[in-house]
Every structure is written in C-alpha cells, then in structure tokens.
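Hi there. Long-time user, first ticket. I'm pasting a complex I've been working with (about 662 residues overall). I'd like to know whether the download I got is complete or cut off, because the file seemed smaller than I expected. Thanks.
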Amino acid sequence: MSQQSALLQVNNLCVDYITDAGDVRAVSDVSFEIAPGEVFGLAGESGCGKSTVAFSISRLHKPPAFISEGEVLFDGKDVLAFSDQELQAFRWAQCSMVFQSAMNSLNPVLRVEEQFCDVLMAHEDISRAQAISRAKELLNIVDIHPDRLRDYPHQFSGGMRQRLVIAITLALKPKLIVMDEPTTALDVVVQREILQKIYQLKEQFGFSILFITHDLSLMVEFCDRIGIMYAGELVEVAPAKSIFKQPLHPYTYGLGQSFPPMLGPKKRLEGIPGHPLNLLEVPEGCRFQSRCEFKHARCERVATSLKELQHQHWAACHRHDSALAPITAEEVSLCKQQ
Amino acid sequence: MQTAIIEANNIVKDFEISRQGLQRKSMRALNDVSFKLHKGRALAIVGESGSGKSTVAKIVAKMHKANAGQVLFNQRDINEFKGRKAELEYRSNVQMVFQDPFGSLNPVHTIFHHVARPLLLHNKFSKHELRDKVEFILEQVGLNPASETAQKYPHQLSGGQRQRVNIARNLAVGAQVMLADEPTSMLDVSIRLGILNLMEEMKSEQDLAMMYITHDIATARYLAEDIGVMYVGHMLEWGDTDEVIHHPQHPYTQLLVSAVPNPEQSIHGGTLAEERGEIPLWTPHSRGCPFAGRCKHVSEQCRQQLPPVVALSERHFVRCFLHS
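Hi, the file is complete. Here it is re-exported in full:
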C-alpha cells in the first residue's frame, strides 16, 4: 500500500523488547501510511503495541526496546537511518508528540514561558523576546490568555494544561503530530472541547495526526482512517466509518460490541471472551484464534496477513479467504450455539 | 415500588482544605444529595471527576460521616450501627468494589485467603465446608476452574479476573448492597463488558441493590435502571436512565450527553454549545446554582439561590429554575 504522496510511511516495522523472560516482539510487521492532512487512528487494548508504534516514529525507544526490522519513511527520508544531528532537527520540528497523560508532562517548577522558550530557542535561531512573542501567539491559538505565560503549570486546570501542551507541539509547525491517548485523563466535556480544537487547528495548519486511543467510539468520530492492532499486529485498516459499520476482522467486531450504545434498544452485549494474548506465548497461526468465534483448522496453522478485501479496506483474517463475508450479529450467535 | 433498602436524605459533606491558626477553610463536597437504592435495581451516578460521586459511596459505606442529612438502611439510621457487632452486621450487608483491582488485593495472599476471610469473619464454617463454599463463590463469578484459581496469587490473574475476585468477596459476605466505584475504568476494553454482565447477573439473580459510579454514560445506561447526574457536589438531575439520557432537562446534563463520543456522528461538524467557564470550588458559603457560571440560560436568580427540586414526572427530577 505505498503511495508517492504519503507523508509518513511505516513499512514492516518490528520492535523487540529484550526481557529476562525472553524476547518479546511487541510490534510485528506493521505497515501503514499517513497522507498529508490526514487523521489516522491506531486502536487496540493496552499492550497491543500501539504506543510502541508511536514511539518508533520519532525513534524514542530506549533499551530494552529495539527496532529490529522495517523502515519509517517521513517525506521519503528514512528516519531510522538519521544521524543524531538529523534526528534532533527532525524531532519536534517535523514530527511532535503529545504523550499519554500529557497534562503532567509540563515541568512543575518552571513557568510556562520558560517551557515555550526552551522549545523555540533550541530549534530556531531567535532571541528570547522573539520567542516570547511567538509563545503569546501560540497561547492565543489555543484560547488561553497570553498574560498567563508567567504562570506555573499547577495554576491551570487539566484541560488548559492539555491545551498548553498542544500549543507547544504546534510551536515549530510540524507536519505530523503523534497523539498518544491525548484525552484519556480528561472528562468527556473537556475531551470534546480539546478534540474540536485540535481538529480546527488541523484544518488551519494542515498537519497530519496519528491518533492513538482505546476508545473506539471516540476514534470513529475523530479519524479519517483507522488501524486496529491486536497483540502487536495490525489486523484491520479501513476508513473510519467502514470499521464501525462493516468490520471484517472478528476482533474489530468484538471491540465494536464492547461499547454499549447510547441510543436504540438495550440488549446484552458480550464483549470479547478470553484474555489478551501474552506475547511470550504466541501461538502458531492466527494470534486471535483463542478468542475467536469463527476459528477453524486453518487458523491454527497458518499465520494471517493483511489483504485488501475491499477498496481501501484491509483485514488479516482467514475467514475471507474464499469469499468476502462481513460479520453479522446473527452469525455470531449461530457460532456460539455450535 | 417496594421500599428502598438504602435511603439517603439531604446529605451534606464538608472537607477541610486548609487550616491557619484558628481559621479553617473547608469545601462542600456534597450539598443536599438524596437518593434511594432498591433491591434488584442499579442506580448509576455519573459526573466529572471532583463532582463528589465517590464521596456519596463512601458515606453510604460508612467510610466518611456526613455533616448533615441522614442515610437509612432498611429504615434504620446507619449511625445507629455502633459497636463491633453492629458494624459487622452493617458491613456484611453493604460492600464496596473499588476502582483499582491491582491495589485492592493483598499480593502476599492467595485468592482462597481473600475470599475465605470475609466468610470466616461473618460466619462459622468447618475447614471442609469453607473450601467448598469458596470454590462455589469463585465459580459464581466465572473464575473457572475454581480450585485452581483459589491457589493463585493476585499477580497471576489479569485485571478482569482480579475485579471478579473483588466481586466474589462481596458475594462471600452475602451483601445486599453493592457500591461499585468505577469498577471497570482500569480494565481493558474487551474485558469491561464481562464485568458489567457479571454485575447485571448479580443484580437480577441475587437481587442485589447496586450503586454504579462511573463517568461513562453509555455503560451507565447499559447497567442501570436509574441515573443521577452530579456536578460540584449537587445532584442536578435524576430519574429513569433512558428518560434522563434521551430527554435531558438540565443544561448540564444536556452538555454532558452531547459530549459523549458517538460513532454515528463526526467531530468535524458542530461545536459544543457552551461558553467556557471554570468549574467552581464550592464552599459552605457559596450561593446559587453550581452550574450558573457556565450555563447559557443563567439568570440573576440562579446566582442568588440554589434552585429547588422539580418533579417532571414520577421518575424524573431536575434541580433548575428553568422548570420551576
């Protein structure tokens, strides 16, 4: 799935963790791309490798994590081959990141002003006065009064701190912002406010977003395209609405069924039986087999790989080997009875 | 409807936040909160962090004492349960499930110990009976095979399984009231529904009265018949779950419901109809409606006095001047 126009291209990425209990392949053969101005989402349960993918993009891994295979192409250049100097120029200026619980990533003993100047003056050859006036502009963008630049982080509410962090990620006008669970620690009302702000800024500045969360409902609403990860593998990639309306992988279907609806009749939902896979005990064949309603003999022997089953809709499941068959509720209940 | 097993009337709770010399500053965590819990039904309490929803549960569990108002258990004031025996009796009936399944089990004891202890504390069993009883309870909460699970230590179980152990401990003492404080928020998405379904079964089969505290309105709707919406220590709207969620009458509930992620719509369109405002710190001297600072329908009256409770129907109440 290579496109010339892609801003970010991740090809066959593998990340290993070297642990006492054995080597764990946390990310296995993951490939996707993000177009300029696109919002791409990665969803999955904790431990599925979605944050590990995010860290790989700006090469933030430290031992025991190693990127063992694959390539990360940003604007056609291989990030994994960058020298330290190139990497420093690339990080934040080209690709910035909002970390999980980002509101705690501000330094509590420095004034906000200091933290803006730090980023701006490290990357650009500007005076402190210029940096401060830039910081004021940035605060305006995220609807915080510029006078508050001299405040400390604890003087802001959670949502405001999150907006400050977003303002800092925007400081160098990056082409890609990686957002790792940017709103998990926030209340729904604040979450919506922040996401609407981010979307508005994206329209204004035209950056791309890699958005990571475990909340599928939120993701469907916010993203253009979504990739679903399970146990280190990408199992389905499709436009947001088709992931939600016509999931092709049983895991995606189960994940969709794990969020009770707000409207419509109340009915019993089952979630997904079993437990997430322990990556030290990866079975032969499909990784989802022990939790899958549709398991058959082939799943136990042959590993799955992503195939384009419909236009722009990729899934890794043997179920569709012979003919394409979207998953329906009737079929799932039928399988259960057997 | 049958009489309530827990009835809370006009609870007020203040917490001291600072003390300088003789000057004490306190905040009002709960103000005039009333609700009822019925057997075989669940009441969901939803609200943002800091709205006082956990404080409500802790007062019912007798972990905090209310400054004013009264909580009745089977028509009896819970402050009357005094002394070891009476306290034991109360606690065997009213149990809590906490948010963090990783912190609420003792890592040096087996699962058997965790379930056996409440059994022994409240009942007398022979050694043989005890083992059977523990395994029976573990099976009830879906921890199969029970004899094997009983031998394990907490670190050998997943988060979902640990939360099941916590629920098993509620069953072990034969609790009639379960206060679940965000029981699923620290669990993996695919595991959450299993726990909610288990709670649903216990509610309908064991006839438990349940309080389900959450910030997730969709799961509140899934589990609970009744819902109460809290904001800054006040219950602003409560009643039948579907009625409140689908026809919210209080401006805050409307805001909250509109902010819930909905895959059917897209974030690209509309913005929240709300003027930004800070969530206030409520003190015993604060006046008016707590939402007044953020409400688009605000009037002078809202800033002066707390709105009265208005019954919109038999099972729908709202605290707002728009409806009085």
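A couple of notes from our side: Chain B touches chain A at residues 48-49, 158, 160-161, 188-194, 196-197, 200, 215, 217-219, 221-222, 245-246, 255-268, 271-272, 274, 276, 278-279 (CB under 8 Å). DSSP finds eleven helices and twelve strands in chain B.
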